Every structure is written in structure tokens, then in C-alpha cells.
Amino acid sequence: MTVQTIDTDYLDQPGVAAAYLVVEGDEAAFVETNTAHAFPRLLEALDAAGRAPEDVRWIIVTHAHLDHAGGAWKAVQACPNATLLAHPAAARHLIDPSKLVKSAEGVYGVERFRALYGSLEPIPAERVRVMDDGGVLRWGSRDLTFLHTRGHANHHMVIHDSATNTVFTGDAFGLCYPALQAGGPWVFPSTSPTDFDGRAAIEAVERIVATGATTAWLTHFGGIGDLRAAADSLNAQLRASVALVEAADASGVDGDALDAHILEAVQAWFDGAIADRGLGADARALVAMDVELNAQGLAFAVRKARFKRSRP
Ligand SMILES: [Zn+2]
Question: How far is the CA of 111 from the centre of ligand 1 (A)?
Fold first, then answer.
């Protein structure tokens, strides 16, 4: 066993957000931490693998969004020999989380933010190592290769593991909830605020396929094979997202009407996918937050494009 999926029980639901435990010799690494609430689950998995917090050498987060890195501070505190590996821009936010908290409160609202994430404490800079694009970390028998992948977030990276020829994709290779696969494979992109860039997201998808990995470990949720097929589906959806943003931008619609227009389009895409697969109300409930976040991110992209053009 070298890669183990840990269900973090995010939103008190199984199969929504994963963290991963990687064991190398006597050492261990976590890839993703979910929120601080999930840390007991990470410890249980570590214990079941016969390893102690002292054996954790690396804590790796794909990006600074809080369902990925919100518990990193707790893991760093509890694992005295661990170093946090992060994208340079993510590292800054985890060392000083004040901006991260403010922006997440903006997306989720203060009350929901507290319920979801609890507190966020700074991580001492000396416990953090930034990973550059293409950086390779030799760890025992394996090489971990870090690839910066914009599109979902500017501070996003994926990690290829040579020992298993698999890749940890965070949110750069879409979401694929196990509970929604009964009617055929369904992977969809995350276009959540505030960095969504459809063209960069397609480049990231292709970069992940180009690693030649046989499995992509999605944070939401678990391992998927046949990366080419998933990539084709993701890219088609990303192109549709780009087209929606451009058409909405060109239409001049603004304010609440812009948000409503985008939300309607995104909801229709999801409803269509649910109907195609013969899924029902449970599926609609499971993706409700993704519909909302994806729509917010696309509306944000429209406003950002206009703002950029408005500057001299
Ligand atoms: Zn996520």
C-alpha cells in the first residue's frame, strides 16, 4: 500500500473530499489536509498504517483553498518532523492566512465559513518549502514532481508520484463524486472564484494527461483511470464555460441579472447531466454547492474581464 484515500467527511458527507496518505519506507506524507475538523481522520489513517505523527515527513497541499489546505496548520503542529510543501503563492497565504480567511468569508459568508473551517492559524515560515514548477523531490525510492497548473487557482500545483505513476490533481482535473457514477462516468470542472481561467484550465488538464499517469487522484473524490477520456469531457465543459463568460461579457448584462443569467446556465448544465444519467434529487443536492460556486466563479470572471479592460 503506497497511496491510501482518506475520506475527510467534508460537509459531514462521505465521498466528497479526500486527503491521501503516502507511505515511503518508515516515513509518510499527507497530500491535502481538508479542514482542521478532518485532522482526526488523517491521524486514524496514519495509525492504521502503523505510522506515528513523528513519521510524517511531508504535508503537501495542491492549493490554498480551504477544503484542501484549511487543516495544514494543524497537521504541521501535530507532526513535528513534517515540512509543508506548497506552491509559492499558496505558501504565502498559509504562512499569513489573513487574506485567505477574508476571501473565503467573502465566498461563503462569515457564519458558514466558521462552521466549515473553524479557525486558521499561521504556519511558521521555517516549516514551509515552496515547490517551483517542474521541481522534483527525491523521497526514498520515489520522485515527486511538482507541476504548476493555473486555471482553477493561480496557486495550484499537481504532484506526480513516480513510484505509482499516479498524479494528485487537487481541483485541476475536475470533480468526480463516486455517488454520481452509476449512470456512466461524470467528471466536471470546478470554476469557482476567484482565479478561474478556462484556457489555462485546459492547458492544466493536458499537462496532467501528458504525465502519462495511469490514475489521477482527485481531491473530490478518489482515483480515476482513463485520463484521456476524462480530459476530453473536462475540456468540452471548460470550452463551454469560456463561451458562456465571453457571451455574458459581450451582452453587457450586469449586476444581479448577470449572476442570475450565469446561475441559470450552470444549473441547466448540471440538470442536463443528472437527467442524462438517470440520477435524481440526491444528485442535485450533492452538487448544489458546486453549481453555486461554479456560477459565482464564472460571473466573477466576467467582471474581472471588464475590470481589466477598464484600466488604462
Ligand atoms: Zn476543492
Answer: 19
